[in-house]
Amino acid sequence: MNRFRACVRLCAVISLNGFLAAIVAGCSTRRTDTIVVGSKNFPEQALLGEILAQHLEARTHLKVERRFYLAGSYICQQALLAGRIDTYVEYTGTALTAILHDPIESDPDSVFAKVRAEYKKRFGFEVMPSLGFNNTFAIVIRGEDARRLNLKTLSDAAHYTPQWRAGFGYEFMERPDGYPDMARVYGLQFAASPRILDLGLLYRALLEKQVDLVAGNSTDGLLAARDLVILEDDKHYFPPYEAVPIVRENLFTQHPEVRTAIAELTGKISDVEMQKMNYAVEGENQDASDVAREFLRSKGMDQK
Q1: For 281, which of 49, 123, 222, 247 is 20 to 30 Å away at the CA?
Q2: CA distance 82 to 76
Q3: DSSP 3-state assignment of 290?
Q4: 37 near 65, Cβ under 8 Å?
Q5: Residue 42 and residue 130 in one domain
């Protein structure tokens, strides 16, 4: 009887495994005609994901799925490796330091070349040319403080930071091109340990004088709409952060038209255009898909 039960269980396991294999095979077949576009978990990434997705829908015959707000770079990288997504937009400096764990470099061409070569060699991913803008970290203070103290650079601010409070996102506190080395390079000290803030609350905390200095992004929409000042990175600490689509190479093998479509976006988004789109979403509460659609229309890229 025990032997009979064991045989029944074994047959059930074999049947279940066969059933699951069939499902996986079926999903794999369906995925050959589907592109999955991912994004990280902030509004600019959702905008870039929508621009990619809508343009691919307009230029190819393929179905496009969206998997947005996948936390940070590490999760998006793992999703690419696992085949859960086929493409997303990364930033070259982030790819260099957070994914490849290479030393910081300041030359944009050198960083792009290294990231492109290493992503191909290590992961089998293609790094496409820049969409046109550089979203570097922005160390931001209130405009009234910048004018009162005549502050223009991070080196200027270092004289006053011992009396200031800082607010940073968790990732900026941890990443190799973030707070610890920046503080070392500029000799920054603060009145207390920096507060860890949600990225959506950084500028509110600054404007409400809960903190005196924050690390945002240079294309943040609110920077153009509030009395805020970006301090110049006068020691060139931060690497370039050019926005580049990362694509699984097998997608290009299966569908060469995808390469052509993504290449059409090269150089199409300026820093100012990205900042305006971000403000439309963050400051005016417009839907990211609508803002992306209007951007593509303005570039004459909305026709199938």
Answers
A1: 247
A2: 10
A3: helix
A4: yes
A5: yes
* Region of 195 on the Ramachandran plot (φ > 0 left; ψ -120 to 50 alpha; else beta): beta
How do 166-168 and 195-196 pair as beta strands? parallel
Helices of type H across the chain = 2-31, 43-59, 73-82, 92-94, 108-123, 143-149, 154-157, 170-174, 179-186, 202-207, 249-254, 256-263, 271-282, 288-298
The answer to whether 96 and 231 are in contact (CB under 8 A) is no
Q: Are residues 65 and 208 in the same domain?
A: no
CA distance 301 to 304: 8
Using the Cα atoms of residue 46, residue 48, residue 53 and residue 58 in order, give the sign of their dihedral.
positive
Question: Sign of torsion, CA 183 189 193 199?
Answer: negative
The residue among 187, 210, 231 that closes a domain is: 231
Burial of 160: CB neighbours in 10 Å, binned 0-12, 13-18, 19+: middle
Which tokens hold the place of 184? Answer: 């070392």
What's residue 186's pLDDT?
Answer: 98
What is the per-residue DSSP string for 25-85? HHHHHHHTTEEEEE--SSHHHHHHHHHHHHHHHHHSSSEEEEE----SHHHHHHHHHHTS-
Whether 15 is covered by a domain: the verdict is: no
pTM of the model: 0.81
